[in-house]
Specification:
284 residues, alpha/beta, Rossmann fold, 8 strands, binds adenosine-5'-triphosphate, binds magnesium ion
Length: 284
């Protein structure tokens, strides 16, 4: 029996109680566009809507999820995969009972995992599936193979862009690399806008290029305004929605959470956890 078949059997055995979590990867072509802040605050906004949320930090960059929450994580997913700690040891509780998981280096080196480690990864992810309505994965920027694996496997992908022209061209390059046989629609967030017209302009520009040259559709999930409160929140290490719930950027993120949850244009997605694991394993 080959490795892929054995993994499929493990997936088949994984206990799935209740409905599957919606797995959303947050990504961008260019770095520094606001992914981590968006992921953290989207998590809070969804939790405020009564959803059970798990955030997985798969970004090895500097401004990590734990830093924005002002928490310290002792162990990470890598430790569990390597058999050095238990799942319960890596879950840190944030506001509104959000589960915060640090990925460590392991999650981005999927290709190098052996059979035993892959099994641990699957079991861990299926545990998060049972305790969550939403699993948000901050994948970091760029086109590494593991980033693309997660983006392709997840039921939803949210790309964060800014009106900066290089952010738009880098987003285009990323969209081009997201496997085309997938019917999954790419959801777009435009961050750091000065006014709604600017958001519309950026969305239309990218949508037209993607529709014309890549024959793919984009969904406009919403805009987030340029807001100094966000920078203040980062410095305080308190997520924006907690520190400044009435800030204009907070309103934008809450609107996006509402859209994801309630607006049927955006709410549709393939929720199957097994499909996620299968796709992930097929990529490696
Ligand atoms: N809406 C906004 N208004 C004002 N400043 C913002 C906004 N969004 C992001 N920023 C600024 O951009 C910085 C980077 O944000 P963040 O760390 O979330 O980006 P990132 O895409 O996760 O970066 P990386 O690619 O390095 O992981 C923030 O610390 C903040 O200073
Ligand atoms: Mg980041």
């Amino acid at each position: 029996m080959d490795q892929a078949q054995r993994l499929r059997d493990i997936i088949g055995d994984a206990q799935v109680e209740g409905p599957d979590a919606r797995i959303i990867t947050v990504s961008s072509g260019k770095g520094g566009v606001g992914k981590t802040n968006f992921t953290v605050n989207l998590g809070i906004a969804l939790a405020k809507l009564g959803k059970k949320v798990t955030i997985i930090d798969a970004d090895l960059g500097l401004a990590n999820v734990d830093v924005l929450f002002g928490i310290v994580t002792k162990y990470n997913l890598s430790n569990v995969i390597k058999g050095e700690s238990e799942v319960q040891d890596i879950i840190v509780k944030g506001p509104y009972d959000i589960n915060i998981i640090s990925g460590g280096s392991g999650i981005m080196d999927l290709i190098d995992l052996d059979q035993n480690e892959l099994e641990k990864l699957i079991h861990t992810l299926s545990y998060f599936n049972t305790i969550s309505d939403y699993i948000l994965i901050d994948t970091g920027a760029g086109l590494s193979k593991s980033v693309l694996s997660f983006v392709d496997a997840a039921s939803d992908v949210i790309l964060v862009i800014t009106p900066d022209p290089t952010s738009i061209t880098d987003a285009y390059a990323l969209i081009k690399n997201i496997i085309k046989d997938d019917q999954k629609k790419i959801k777009l967030i435009i961050n750091r806008i000065e006014n709604n017209e600017e958001g519309d302009e950026v969305f239309n520009k990218l949508e037209q290029a993607v529709s014309k040259f890549l024959s793919r559709e984009l969904e406009n999930l919403g805009y987030i305004f340029e807001d100094n409160n966000l920078k203040r929140a980062v410095r305080k290490q308190i997520p924006l929605l907690e520190a400044y719930p009435r800030a204009i950027a907070s309103k934008g993120i809450e609107n996006i959470a509402y859209n994801l949850e309630n607006n049927h244009r955006y709410a549709k997605s393939n929720h199957s956890f097994k499909a996620f694991i299968n796709k992930l394993m097929n990529k490696i």
